[in-house]
Amino acid sequence: MFSPVSLERVVQLTLYTDSYMIHGTVHTRQHRVTDILDRADDPFLVLEETVIEEYGARGDTTRSDFAQVNLATVLFAVSDVPVEPVPELRTPKVPEQALITVPPFKLVGTIHLMPERDLRLALEELTGHFIPMTEVTYWSDTIGEPRTTAAMVAFNHDRAQILAPHRVVDPWAGLDGTAPGAAESGPAAGPGAADDPGRASGEPPTGW
Fold first, then answer.
1. Torsion sign, CA atoms 86, 92, 94, 99
2. In what order do the strands lie in the sheet with 145-156?
3. Is residue 138 part of a domain?
4. Which of 95, 130, 183, 192 has minimal CB crowding within 10 Å?
């Protein structure tokens, strides 16, 4: 029995690089966003109907019919439209809350690891050029990008540092007589942090 031929479709993506936020569409036969990035035939991705925004309040905005984006420069990608999952692609995973740093951005959310592993071993087995993350809050204090939430993000494994589980530590703790390490764990300990975005169970949501 032959599997049905995968039809080409149009997917909306937002790519974040070191300097730019790039909105556009891509024609692909891949079902999952991570596959669009990992299985590209070339080291770049060609987007159509693009809007390119430079970071910062005074950054320029450019529109173009096409844009070739070097995948090595992509810090993470956000899918603008969720994709219904394919049953045969669903692999049971264990959710783990994590902090991902891809300078100048930070991402807090849920990564999905192989079951029946201790955390260290599960992280050693986390492979792939782009790694899916769900229920994400991302921001950059360095370049003044506000906190934004997304259901799904794929971050560049080569550019990232993964902290799981993580705890925000107050560097001034203990200087006023309080116990060091008294800061709360998770994203809520940071100034202006949103409610915990990493509460998830079971498998990643659609599109991964």
1. negative
2. 61-70, 44-54, 20-28, 9-17, 74-79, 145-156, 130-140, 105-113, 94-102, 161-163
3. yes
4. 192
Same domain (yes/no): 134, 50: no
Q: Tell me: do 33 and 72 sit in the same domain.
A: yes
Looking at residue 176, its pLDDT comes to: 64
Q: How many CB atoms lie within 10 A of CB 59?
A: 14
Residues of the chain falling short of pLDDT 70: 1-6, 57, 80-91, 116, 166-171, 173-174, 176-208
- What pLDDT does residue 49 have? 95
Can you tell me the distance from the alpha carbon of 110 to that of 127, in angstroms, rounded to the nearest whole number? 16
- Tell me which residue has tokens 């997304």: 150
CA distances to 66, 67, 76, 165, 170 from 110, rounded to whole Å, are 33, 31, 15, 10, 23
> Which CATH number do you get for residue 67?
2.30.30.100
